[in-house]
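User: I'll paste a sequence; please echo it back and then give the predicted structure.

Assistant: Echoing your sequence first, then the prediction.
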Amino acid sequence: MAYGCQRLGSPREELQRVDAVFSGEVSNVNREKIEFKVEKIWKGPRTKRISVKHGYEQSDCTYVFVVGRKYLVYAYGKGIFSTHVCTRTKELDKASDDLKELGEGKEP
């Protein structure tokens, strides 16, 4: 966890706290946003593509996403989502505990 982050709650607690939780593959990254091809949704819009804007202009709080990798994303916002390192966002292959607690997501 980055410096200054508050202690994170459990996956279920964070699900209540954030505005969207989804898993998906990064299809594009540019200066303004990260585009995801959505695979499962636990909270938020049921859509096949979601864009997440970069957090804090490449600061210590910016989560670095890589095209082609899959992530479990906890995001804030209405319509325009954002995330940062002080969330439970992580690569999907490291999210088994979260996925177990969140249960089966919905198809987009």
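The helical segments are 11-17, 96-102. The first helix runs from residue 11 to 17.
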